[in-house]
Amino acid sequence: MKIPKYTLLCLLFSFVAFSQKQSKQDIATAAKKITVYTTAENTRLRLSPTANLFFSKATQPLETQLAIVVEPRKTFQNFLGIGGAITDASAEVFAKLPKDKQQEFLTSYYDKEKGIGYSLLRTTIHSSDFSSESYTYIKEGDKDLKSFSIAHDQQYKIPLIKQAIKTAAGKLTTYASPWSPPAFMKSTNNMLQGGVLLPEYDQAWANYYVKFINAYEKEGIPIWGLTIQNEPMAKQTWESCLYTADEERDFIKNYLGPTLKKEGLGNKNIVIWDHNRDLMYERANTILSDPEAAKYVWGTGFHWYENWSGGEQMFDNVRKVYEAYPDKKLLFTEGCVERFDASKYQFWPNAERYGKAMINDFNNGTVGWTDWNILLDQNGGPNHVGNFCFAPVHANTNTGELIYTPSYYYIGHFSKFIRVGAKRISSAVSRSALISTSFLNLDGTVVTVVMNDSDKSITYSLMVSANQAEVVIPPHAMQTLVY
């Protein structure tokens, strides 16, 4: 078949233009500087700039090479943020610090330039185990909530939240979780040791969330959303309340969802489950397959403590919820290193637990990641039932010293560089010696986070489109590559 001369010229022009465009893209990428930040065990490297590299033209990687292949044109979930919980414990410890240490602490977490740029915050609806005592916002027995007051929180917790928001330039996505309804609303007449919400108090408890939101927002603290119940399948020695999947579904669709809507709070985001990865798929199926419940639900929250009974963390369950309900979101709502031991402040596997979880959770569709307490004291508390734990930062309230653990820096490899609104992009590692995830920020910068938990230094190729750069990561290290 003879091609007309005009068509042939058009095709030739298009091919040349396309080739030039591709060439310009490749050259632009090749000219881009890669800034490498590293935190490594047995070194002084802590989120330290360690290399400035440039891309060169890529060659076919060999099977003997280790490569991280990034494809920025394939995008996934939008990034909501990374942060931690401001509990009573955190706020009480903060209040005991000297003013200069308070400012240092706020800057280290919430300042994007000088700190690690937290953008997400969880807090509790009245007391949790990380409070000095059990308390609620009403007088016991007040089902009409006439005595509702957040005066307790105005002493420590609310002032710290306000300062955190200010340090974060006024932008800190804040959500809240209850550990238990008031004792009289429960089958056990006790905030501790489990029990269930009595059916006659379903509406009163839904009204309690509304009161909380309105009270906090009156204080100038916007509430982005709520989880229904912290760990609804765990009978704990501290504040706890049990919900089956059916009970949580019915409370959402018959009480909490309609009540928020009626009170003009229908824009608040409801997060279900708020417990471990083990049963999150079962919970999501029960609630999200019910259209009347699902219409009120933003997404599924989860924790990382499923290995309490043995076994490994079940990252694949996150992916299964992501695949089954792509129109709903996933949010990591709590994780910490349990069983506090002051001799292990600098215990590196604690940090690697964070790195492994964050990379896997993001790669499986999670939009945001929330650590537990942002600050605890030299005893891993205060905690009114002795459930002492680690935080990324501890304070010695006797000396005023702030102690930064490796976990703080590992979290910072994500939170400092991946900004709100970024999109996760496609990436893969060719060998199991490293794990990695990548995001594309709104300003066009790409962030690739890499973790090496082996005892050896590893050389790898970062491959992006038709370009590559050779990078070395030390043993037991985390790197962030920005380009």
Automatic annotation (TrEMBL):
GO biological process: glucosylceramide catabolic process
Gene Ontology MF terms: glucosylceramidase activity
Keyword vocabulary terms for this entry: Glycosidase, Hydrolase, Signal
UniProt keyword annotation of Hydrolase present: yes
A GO CC term attached to the entry: membrane
Domain Glycosyl hydrolase family 30 beta sandwich: 421-481
Origin superkingdom: Bacteria
InterPro entries attached to this UniProt entry: GH (IPR017853), GH30_C (IPR033452), Glyco_hydro_30 (IPR001139), Glyco_hydro_30_TIM-barrel (IPR033453), Glyco_hydro_b (IPR013780)
Protein name: Beta-glucosidase GH30
